Every structure is written in structure tokens, then in C-alpha cells.
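User: Predict the structure for this protein chain, please.
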Amino acid sequence: MTTANSGPGVPGGTDERGLRIRPAGRVILLDPDDRVLLMRYDDGPPNGVHWCTPGGGLDPGEDYAAGAQRELAEETGWDDITLLGEVYRREHTMEYADAIVRQVERFYLARTDQPERSITGVEAMHAADGIAAWRWWTLAELDSTAEAIWPAELPGLIRQTLS
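Assistant: Here is the predicted structure, written as C-alpha cells:
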């Protein structure tokens, strides 16, 4: 497992600067051709338009893996994906409409056996959560895009996980 920007802090508490710590579970979901599913958010500044893996904040009392699994199901409508294990951790400052938080993320690898599996039936959830689009990306596309990918090190992380 790789860790970036690790530091002190208790998920659900506050960090040394007084920022609320927001624990989040995320899923690096790969299809049989090693394409990764990403969601696009069209946020205003400072976050801006960016693509990221499915996932989000944990519910009270929920552990990271359960939260990642729940978020994946909510964002895709798929309840048949099994998490294969934690592969990455990071912490970063995130600005939401109502607060600036220290987001503590754990990423889990998962696979689907369906190439470029389609997402249907969750359009209302996407609209409510601010997901503007979704797509499957190849590693070559991630390497060459000018679009913001969160985390920026995702292509290398996927390569490391596959090797």
C-alpha cells in the first residue's frame, strides 16, 4: 500500500489547524482491459472541474471499506463489486460550499468483469451529488489528458497496482 501526505489526525476529529477531518472511502475500479472508472465534477473555484474515482465521505460509525463499497453502489447502481483490498492513502485539504476540511482518503482496488460497464438508473443521485459525467479511461488517456485527475498520481498508482 502506498501513502501520500500522511500526517496526524483522527478521522472525524480536527487536525492541528482546526480543520474538520472528513474520512472518505474511494474505489479504483478497473474493467477487464484495465480502464478505470472516473466521475467528473464541475465545481467552481477552488476545486474546479476534475475527475476522480467513485467514493465519498463515510457515514457515522462506518469504516473506510464499507464506506467505499456503499459509495460505489450509490454512484453506479452496482451492488456486485467486491473490494480487493486497500492500495493507497492520502490526506488533502478540500473546500466545500460550507467548509474547508482535511479529507482523509483510503483507496480500494476493485474489478468488474464487464468492459466499459454502463451506469444507468442513478441520474438523480448524480445530479444531487454534483456528478456531471462519468467515463472509463485508459492509462494512455490519463497520461495524455490536460484535465484535472484526482489524485494526480492515479496513473502511476494503477501501474504499480497492476505490476
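The two ends are 13 Å apart (CA to CA).
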